[in-house]
Amino acid sequence: MKHYKYLIIGGGLAGDAATRGIRELDADGSIGLISAEPDAPYARPNLSKGLWKGRPVEKIWRKTEDRAELLLGRTVTSLDATKKTVHDNKGGKYAYDKLLIATGGSPIRLPFGLADITYFRDLQDYQRLRKQTEEKNHFVVIGGGFIGSEIAAALTMVGKKVTMIFLEDAIGAAIFPSDLAHHLNEYYREKGVEVLANDSVASIQMEGNRLTVQTGSGRAIDADGIVAGIGIRPNVSLAQEAGLKIENGIVVDESLQTSALDIFAAGDSANFFHAALGKRVRLEHEDNAVAMGKLAGRNMAGAHETFTHIPMFYSDLFDLGYEAVGEMSSKMEIVSDWDEPFKKGVIYYLAEGRVRGVLLWNVWKKLGEARALLMEKGPFKAEDLIGRIKGE
Question: Is 319 exposed, middle or buried (0-12, 13-18, 19+ CB in 10 A)?
Fold first, then answer.
């Protein structure tokens, strides 16, 4: 049985960041990182952003092997929190002093056409889709959220014909104010995307190399490839079977330790206390994974620090881009402060007089101000926020 001072389960951004956090305090302690993926850790957001704009694949690697022993293509099958041991699906057995669970999430899948759909999540998905674009032309993208909107834009920018299908009435309808979301429908159509809002996928059939997507409204769409981005579910089964507390993710305290001694959790699968929102949340964004992973690593190495970081997230949609912090829901009270409608402005999300989220739409270098505003108790009225954060 191989023993590591620090053992990390999960080869995403949180796992890599943990190795960096550990090395800041412990230069020599042995680190093992077990990942189900065959590839070493990489910067995942590039899969739907930078790589489609010409960023070379060589630039995405995190060089985790410089800090840890990588155990790739392995799935952990059991965790004994009492004996501090882990087993994997290839017969590997490991003991640890400190453990990090950074297992991320798995794509939500449709109940049909499984082999024919690219559920866009990892590097192999990107490579498969990129190869398809070299040979094929028409792609159906299922989902109008973060991944769906980014992939639809990316495929269009490399000259492909794209049809988007999603249940909501507009792109990003769950988070953007209605007027902005509906503007995005038209914006995508102007870019050449066929946007089918308020529709669903009823079935997928394959004849030869050709796919036919039947929609709930009765449309039949012939396609060369299908990409789905309809959300993820946190991978918590391992933690659950080990007896850790689970509630919309793996529950961690302010130091990112789970309910079991010497076991920490970070990233998409972790449920933590959000310092600015004053409540427990689970987030699926790069900045959160990196910040949590690094602090978890430091605490595994004895730092005893509290997680107070206010995570940000961002997206690129053709020529548009945004950064955001906090909570964003189209159901909240929303104040829009546009310099130029739908092209540049700041959108504030309020609950009970407090600013709970800030969306910086084509407004840059203002994250510090947005984070500070989330910490203010208010109460705020709409007129208090107009001009509060100004775009450069």
Answer: exposed
Task: Report the distance separating Cα 188 and Cα 59, nearest Å.
Answer: 29
Q: What burial class does residue 305 get, using C-beta atoms within 10 Å of its C-beta: 0-12 exposed, 13-18 middle, 19+ buried?
A: middle
pTM of the predicted model as reported, rounded to 2 decimal places? 0.96
Backbone phi, then psi, for 100, in 5-degree steps?
Answer: -120, 130
CA distance 223 to 226: 7
Domains and CATH numbers, the chain: 2-106+232-300 (3.50.50.60), 109-228 (3.50.50.60), 319-385 (3.30.390.30)
What gap in Å lies between CA 221 and CA 229, rounded to an integer? 18
Tell me: cis bond preceding 379? Omega within 30 of 0 counts.
yes
Residue 322: per-residue pLDDT = 97
Output the CA torsion sign for 15, 19, 22, 28: positive
pLDDT tens track for 81-92 = 999 999 999 999
Pairing status of strand 93-101 against strand 263-265? parallel
What's the distance, CA 392 to chain centroid? 28
The helix-helix angle for 286-300 and 13-25 (nearest 10°) equals 40
105 touches 232 (CB < 8 A): yes
* Mean predicted lDDT score pLDDT of the chain: 96
Question: What residue has token string 């309020």?
Answer: 350
Query: In whole angstroms, what is the distance from residue 319 CA to residue 321 CA?
Result: 7
Q: Which of 105, 206, 217 lies closest to 166, judged by CA?
A: 217
**Helical axes 178-190 vs 146-157, angle rounded to 10°:** 20
Structure tokens at 367: 């994250």
Task: Evaluate whether 137 touches 225 at the Cβ level (below 8 Å).
Answer: no
Asked if 265 contacts 100 with a C-beta cutoff of 8 angstroms, the reply is: yes
